[in-house]
Amino acid sequence: MWTFSVENGQPPDPAHWAVADVVEYFRAAGFQEQASAFQDQEIDGKSLLLMTRNDVLTGLSIKLGPALKIYEFHVKLLQTQHLKSGTA
After folding, report:
1. Do residues 35 and 65 lie in contact, with contact meaning Cβ atoms separated by under 8 Å?
2. Contact present, 61 and 37 (Cβ < 8 Å)
């Protein structure tokens, strides 16, 4: 289960997440099988924020359906929230 505290209705800034935090985020989001791809590729929070759609669809070696959902509903959302928060 998602173990991070939620601040102002938002999860903490992913820029500070370790690889294990990224893996846990996707497991909690219902992507148990796909979360291991983030572990295998050593994707931490800073790397997650730099990922493009193509990185998620082809670089993680996961099925297209889950990859699209992961990018559109999670990676893109976290990137947008990070930019809006103004943190570097």
Report:
1. no
2. yes
The dihedral formed by the CA atoms of 16, 18, 24 and 25, expressed in degrees to the nearest 10: 30
Whole-angstrom distance, CA of residue 83 vs CA of residue 19: 20
35-69 pLDDT tens trace:
999 999 999 999 999 999 999 999 999 999 999 99
pLDDT of residue 60: 96
Listed as own residue / partner, the contacts of 82-86 with beta carbons closer than 8 Å and 24 or more positions apart are 82/13, 82/14, 82/15, 82/49, 85/10, 85/13
- Residue 47, amino acid: S
